[in-house]
Amino acid sequence: MQLQQKQLWCHLPNYSYSLSPFLSLTLAKQDSFACSLHITYIKSCFHLQAMAAGKEIFHKMKESVKEKVGLGASDSADSGKGKSKMSKQITHGFHLVKGKAFHEMEDYVVAKFKEVDDNELGLFAIFDGHLSHEIPDYLCSHLFDNILNEPNFWQEPEKAIKKAYYITDTKILDKASDLGKGGSTAVTAILINCQKLVVANVGDSRAVLSKGGVAKPLSVDHEPNMEKDEIENRGGFVSNFPGDVPRVDGQLAVARAFGDKSLKMHLSSEPYVTVEIIEDDAEFLILASDGLWKVMSNQEAVDSIKGIKDAKSAAKHLSEEAVARKSSDDISVVVVKFH
């Protein structure tokens, strides 16, 4: 964006010298003072036009990315919010913080409401990449589309989600030469017409619902030790080195993920899927990457934001609390408030 603005500022004033009949007349009369004043006037006009054009370009770029967020700068933080058109009391907010590792931000977020025919869908997701920011970025752009393109989505959303996860992972593996060797965990939540919540996950990004102040997990952490038999049946192994977490083939700390082509024979991308009907005692939903869950329990997270009405402020508070508790990983949080 800075480069585009600089180009507007540099080129438009230069072009202005050939546009004014008054300037040509002034030059013909060799009136250097008037010429100087008019050049200044022309430059000012085009500077103002360039600033307006630059702002318009920036606004359009901002609108085009506000539904998909991915950060790469070493000291970046980003946040945003939105609300349902079907039920004004349902709002969402998100906040991301770059971790201390010397690589690009690998957490990506989706948080938006989408109208489909006469229905409204709330689409929320955390994609936490490992050794990759390309794969979580790809998931941001494609996973929900693949889910909604399944013909049985409205009748059998659980089956549609499982199939779409499989199709998306297959495409990621086919594109491994472009997307790289890494992978990504995922937690997705689809709120259908503000009433039905369908949550799916692979890996250790987590979804937690607050019901009457009590934390209810809507996802499962896919830890290698919990799926040791399945991994070994596929020909892999789970390492348990002192001072380290269990890892698939001594490498990956989750048993399910998108990508990871070199380990895929021993990994699964089948999601855990659950359906929750949103009733009056459902207060809010938290989606977050393991940068939060490494330092906070489900109940601690719920208790931490139960008094914060604004969803964006709640997401930011959780992220900042994780940093205060010495989380060094990338941290991404989405909060959906139901009332």
From TrEMBL:
Cofactor(s) in the UniProt record: Mn(2+); Mg(2+)
Alphabetic keyword roster: Hydrolase, Magnesium, Manganese, Metal-binding, Protein phosphatase
Protein name: protein-serine/threonine phosphatase
Taxonomic placement: Eukaryota, Viridiplantae, Streptophyta, Embryophyta, Tracheophyta
CDD domains named in the record: PP2Cc
SUPFAM superfamilies: PP2C-like
Reaction catalysis annotation: O-phospho-L-threonyl-[protein] + H2O = L-threonyl-[protein] + phosphate; O-phospho-L-seryl-[protein] + H2O = L-seryl-[protein] + phosphate
Database matches in Gene3D superfamilies: PPM-type phosphatase domain (3.60.40.10)
EC number(s) from the headed UniProt entry: 3.1.3.16
Domain PPM-type phosphatase: 91-338
UniProt similarity note: Belongs to the PP2C family.
GO terms, molecular function: metal ion binding; protein serine/threonine phosphatase activity
